[in-house]
Amino acid sequence: MRLGQTSIVHFASRFSASLLGFIATIFIARFLGSETLGIYYLVLSTVAWLSIAVKMGVPSAITKRVSEGNDEAAYLIAGGTIVLGLFFVISFLVIISQNRINDYLGYPAAEVVVLFLFVTLTQAVVNSVLKGQHLVHVSGVLTPIRTGTRSLIQIGAILAGFKIAGLFVGYTVGYVLVSVLGLWIVVRQFDAITTPTVSHYRRIISYAEYSWLSEIRTRAFNWVDVAVLGFFVSSSLVGIYTAAWNISVFLILFGGSLSQTLFPEMSSLSADENPQSVADLFETALSYGGLVLIPGLVGGVLLGEHLLRVYGEEFTQGSVVLIVLIVATLIQGYQRQFTTTLDAIDRPDMSFRVNAVFIVTNVVFNVILIPYFGIRGAAVATASSVFVSLLVAYGSLSALIDFSIPIGEIGRQWIAAGVMGMTVYAGLYLESTYGNVRNIVLVLVLVSFGAIVYFSTLLLISRRFRTTVDQNLPVDLPIVQA
């Protein structure tokens, strides 16, 4: 029950944070214009890529070692000092190269890059300890606090006339606030503050030397296709592709929350017993990995054009791209559960191999397909590379533990999605025949009604889903009693 509630809290927190960030972005764009917004996101992009060199997989290693339940403070100090040293090295390189960086950014913001790098690094380390302490829901709640604080300060600063400087201040304050709150919670959980030994450093580094590639994998999953598209298609087509990508990625939030929730539990079990002990949790992860993505795919097929029309009429030409990208995120949702389990049983070397396969195939497929098929080629390249990495992940994990694929539960999710699809299709038919509803209203109504139909159907046909819902509701409801 606790794991289910933790996943729901984490998912709701990430959803709220995404919504707050979306609202703030619209406000910034309308009041400061595209140029200022572009500079701001160039700074964030630069920080994101530099953070890979600063973190080097250490936060993931901290989560792993802390989740094992021994010497938590020592591992925090060891990991923190490693990333602090890397931060000083990267910051020095940024400062001596600030003229080139400022030219690239179009604004004198090299010092801001260093500041952002520090606050994001601090928050990442604190967050990694919270996850290792099985407080994933707490780390999730801190995300909308950070985003909400940042957004409110940025909007207030813009109204006060501070322009881009207000964006920088809001970002910094948001990260500092949650870092302080998170560190206070972390320290209260420690039984004792111990000094790290050489062994602690070695165990952090031994895990981090493989886990750092997962961060590059995340960047590749989000940005390789867009980067390659920039060489071959117009900026308008890149914009259409990005709009479709944002919709598809939104559907993967629940799967990410599930994997982050289960990781420390799997890690603890693996450390206390043996790798096979995590099999049940892994099968649970597979059971619910497509809970949102499967109906999302059916909905994308039926409502793709309508969803993209919310951005503007020209975006509807990306409807096929949207469908393919949702397929990619569906595969990614399952693949993530495999790599999370590999990391949890202390086999980051195999997770490293899976991530390396994805990165290489993603780059190669994009370079081959985009020149001939444009944005559709980029979508197919992403989906294909994720599928290849899923096959490698399956082979790697099946060699270590015995598990079964919950085909029955996944099949019931597809049946419920099919029932949902028929009702949505009926709604589209009725609207096209008898109505003249505004597109945004039609989308909201059909998405909401489709979600109700899907989850209601799943409650009726899936005993496991009814049991899960019943165990995680704060009150007893007869309708969900197993």
Structure overview:
The structure is a single chain. Helix 1 (2-55) crosses helix 10. The protein is globular, with a radius of gyration of 23 Å. With 482 residues, the protein is mainly alpha-helical. 48% of the residues are buried. The longest helix is centred in the N-terminal third of the chain and has 54 residues, at 2-55. Helix content is 84%, strand content 0%. It contains 17 helices and no strands. Among the domains are: 1-196, no CATH class; 407-480, no CATH class.
Uncertain spans, ≥5 residues at pLDDT below 50? none
Computed CA radius of gyration, to the nearest angstrom: 23 Å
The profile of the biggest β sheet is:
none
Shape: globular
Q: What class would the helix/strand composition place it in? A: mainly alpha
What is the ordering of alpha helices and beta strands?
Answer: HHHHHHHHHHHHHHHHH
Give the amount of beta strand, in percent: under 5%
Name the features.
single chain; 482 residues; mainly alpha; 84% helix; 0% strand; globular
Question: Mind sketching the topology for me?
Answer:
Layout: H1 2-55, H2 58-67, H3 72-96, H4 98-105, H5 110-132, H6 136-159, H7 164-189, H8 198-232, H9 235-250, H10 253-272, H11 279-289, H12 293-309, H13 319-344, H14 348-398, H15 407-434, H16 439-461, H17 463-472
Helix pairs in contact: 1-3, 1-5, 1-6, 1-10, 2-3, 2-5, 2-8, 3-5, 5-6, 5-7, 6-7, 8-9, 8-14, 9-13, 10-11, 10-13, 11-13, 12-13, 12-15, 12-16, 13-14, 15-16
